[in-house]
Amino acid sequence: MKPKIKIAFLSGTPELNRLLTERMRELYPELPLWVVSDFPPEGRPEACPTWIRYRIQRSFLYNLGRCREALRGHDIRLAGVMLVPNVPFRRMRLVALLLSPRGFIAFNENLNHFMLRPAQLGAIGRHIVWRVKNTARWLRKNPPVAAAILARAASWLRPRWNRTTGAAPQLRDPGISLIIPSRNGRDLLAAQLPGITAQRPDEIIVVDNGSDDGTAEWLAEAYPSIEVEVSGEPLSFARAINRGVARARYSHICLLNNDMLIEPGFFRALRRPFDQVPDLFCASAQILFPPGVRREETGKTVFDPAAHPDFPVWCDEPLAGEDGSYVLYGSGGCSLYDAAKLAALGNVDETYAPAYVEDLDLGYRAWQRGWPSVYEAGAVVEHRHRATTSRYFTQEQLDVILERNYLRFLARAVSSPKLFRSLWRPRKRMLREAPAIALSGGPSGRPEYPEERFLALCSGAVSVFPGRPATGKQRVLVASPYLPFPLSHGGAVRMYNLMLRAAEGFDLILVAFVEEAGTPPRELLDLCAEVVLVRRPGSHELPFTGRPEMVEEFDSAAFRAALEQSVRKWRPSAVQLEFTQLAQYENACAPARTILVEHDITFDLYEQLARLGENPALGRELPLWRRFETGAWRRVDRVVVMSAKDEAMVTGAKAVVLPNGVDLERFRPGGKSPDPRRLLFIGSFAHLPNRLAVEFFLSEVWPRLRGATLHVIAGARHEQWRLNVDLQQAGIEPEGFVTDVRSAYERAALVIAPLTASAGTNIKILEAMAMGKAIVSTPAGVNGLDLAAGRDFVLVNHGTEMAEAIERLLGDPGERARIEAAARERVERDFGWDHIARRQAAMYRELT
Fold it and tell me: Helix (H, G, I), strand (E, B), or coil: what is residue 718?
């Protein structure tokens, strides 16, 4: 007979889930309680057998199958769920119903419940009636909610297309037309114009917008060369700007508010990006505020609904050295526009009255055409914030104007219905107007550049940093899941050393993921013409698309957009995708040739780990990696591998062996005597094979050694990784990330590599050999390296043999010295980075 259990599906809010769990424990107390939820209940570890993880991002069939697998051999007596509205667990409740229709028991917020039995039809009906009555009563007591429902309904009825485009672009003479709208701003103009005229834009047009302070007369006398467009009545900001645009004659139009003071080089800096970024629409200045005034604007406009759901457009604080980052739009008060593109968009939309959001609308529509806007740090203004608008409107009025115009923008500009409805969140005071705004909206047509792509690019996750000046040589773009500096792991060591040498003959561009935004290390800026950093958000849950989980972890719309824009901007001849998981971006690299650098053959590593039986999940991931990796090889132009062994595994593509190497100048014998019985292991615990290696050594080898010291350099945050052995015992010295490991090598009498699984090749082996150290290694420790056992290192196959070899070498300085000399000689002959870099350069040139 199958054992009976009861199971709680935590499909409500956290507090209601707690109450459900307590109530389920009370029912049939003799039966064990299992739990299905997305997080471990009450902090239980994942290994708890009574917890079945529900993957909210995975499909219904996936979760149903996982539950059936976990519950195989058990009979479900009760399957309890919470019927709570507005909680995203409807599919979880259906899983419960299918698993146990007779045991299905549904609770409401008051813990009243029913089961699907004929005798319970009355209770089911009463629950439905109770829910309907409660909803109706609540709506009567909350009229704004009813208005919100109407506003939401209107969002589904918005016209699909309801907007016209502008005139055909006209060729104009090269130059800058400056347009300054001004209403009773004579004093502001008097402070502003000396700095402007000193920089000599090609023409200055002041739109005298209903002034009664003598602005026009004063300008005619003080600045007779300035053109003045006079309007007797005050116009909205958009209409005033368009009056000036109609008179502008030059290829670029600068819009500048009269409360902006420009710094030297302003126009020159704003003009520069138009020669660098293809199809650039707008360059936005860096905005500063007077001393002591909080910086409300910066010029770096971003779109981030997660941070600001009601109004997801805001200004981010630029990072030190950041310049040229893509922004959603340029501030209408201090930006330079391509005049032809501005005309093609119909100039500034005059729907946005009296002011605000018209610049957002303009930039958004330009992005839909594939015309970027960028932040230009070198063009600096000081903003005397709202010095004009605050004279005529109260703060509350300005807030209402902003909210109303933002809703108009959503209705008129956002093309994707799904995106529009997700952003359509009218605030309470706008609920009555919202339906009419939605029904009168509608964009001009389908975007040529996907909205989700440019919104991800302008989300604040992407930062651009200029590096050293480009030389005009052949360009290579390197895309990496990690920064190549500092040298915190073997992959970084390889990337940095080859980039260091490639920079002598090529212009390099780096696009890399980072966990936290920050200025790139100077070591990278000195190598690259540009460094683009993409912040990678963490997630406890990933969608399932038939690809390995690590591939999903690095699937980023922001990274894809940043890569596409970098390829478009720099036109590299080759894009080098570092590590297997970045192969998913090969279709974002056209027309450049693509190189996939396989630091290891990932499915080979997973196959080894699966054979060791360390984790059943590895077995499930293995076929996903094999399918993804072999498919990636067929889609790229070259596959770079670390060894002849890996080359033989690559099918469907041309593979090139560019082995790992070592900096022979940096790593060389120091001449100091080592500590007599000191052993060294280097390997980041973030890499599973290194953790397994330490566990093997401490359980199989360490007990057989006497009086030795083991120094373990385990990498950053090594404490977070759980081992099945104790590092806190006599003679073991664990350490985190070490910037310079040479002193650790010098102190060691022997270097050990007790790996039980490995793919690619181990850079730490080559560093130890270059330092003139004798190495004791398992076959996996020297995987892929064509080294001679007994001459270049000592090979062992099991724990007893490793312990004996270590004791023998510690006791025989002569044999140890012979191996040390042979090791240094071997890396000098075959593994210097200079030699490998020359072969890499030849591959670049062959590709193009």
Answer: helix
Three-class secondary structure of residue 699 per DSSP: helix
Phi, psi of 501 (to 5 degrees): -85, -35
Distances (CA, A) of 202 to 224, 479, 629: 14, 41, 56
In whole angstroms, what is the distance from residue 67 CA to residue 54 CA?
8
Query: Cα–Cα distance between 758 and 615 in angstroms, integer?
Result: 16
Strands (E), 24-126: 33-37, 51-53, 75-82, 104-107, 113-115
Contacts of 140 (CB under 8 A, 6+ apart): none
Predicted confidence at residue 428, as pLDDT, reads 83
602-612 and 616-635 helices, crossing angle to 10° = 160
Q: Tell me phi and psi for residue 82, to 5 degrees.
A: -105, 125
CA atoms within 13 A on the CB side of 617: 5
- Identity of residue 706: R
Contact in structure between 192 and 261 (CB atoms under 8 Å): yes
Q: What does the alpha-carbon distance between residue 720 and residue 688 come to, in Å, rounded to a whole number?
A: 13
Are 192 and 168 a contacting pair, CB within 8 Å? no
The letter for the amino acid at 557 is: A
Helices 215-222 and 186-199 pack at an angle, to 10 degrees, of: 30
Look at residue 266 in the predicted model and tell me its pLDDT: 97
Rg, C-alpha atoms of the chain: 33
- For 727-746, the DSSP string reads SSSTTEEEE---S--HHHHH
Please provide the average confidence, as pLDDT, over all residues in the chain: 89
d(Cα 89, Cα 183) in Å, to the nearest integer? 55
| Nearest to 771, CA basis, from 666, 675, 677 | 666
Length of the chain as a residue count: 848
Residue 557 belongs to what H/E stretch?
helix 557-570
Query: What tens digit of pLDDT does each residue of 113-170 get?
Result: 778 766 666 666 666 676 666 656 655 655 555 666 677 777 777 877 777 777 666 7
Residue tagged 């593994």 (tokens): 831
Three-class SS of 793-832: EEECCCHHHHHHHHHHHHCCHHHHHHHHHHHHHHHHHHCE
Residue 327 contacts residue 309 (beta carbons within 8 Å): no
Report the distance separating Cα 539 and Cα 550, nearest Å. Answer: 12
Give the pair of three-digit tokens for residue 650: 């690559």
Local structure of 35: helix, strand or coil: strand
Neighbours of 747 (CB within 10 A): 16
DSSP strands (E only) in 550-623: 574-578, 593-597
Per the CB < 8 A criterion, the answer to whether 297 and 391 are in contact is: no
Low-confidence ranges of the chain (pLDDT < 50): 44-48
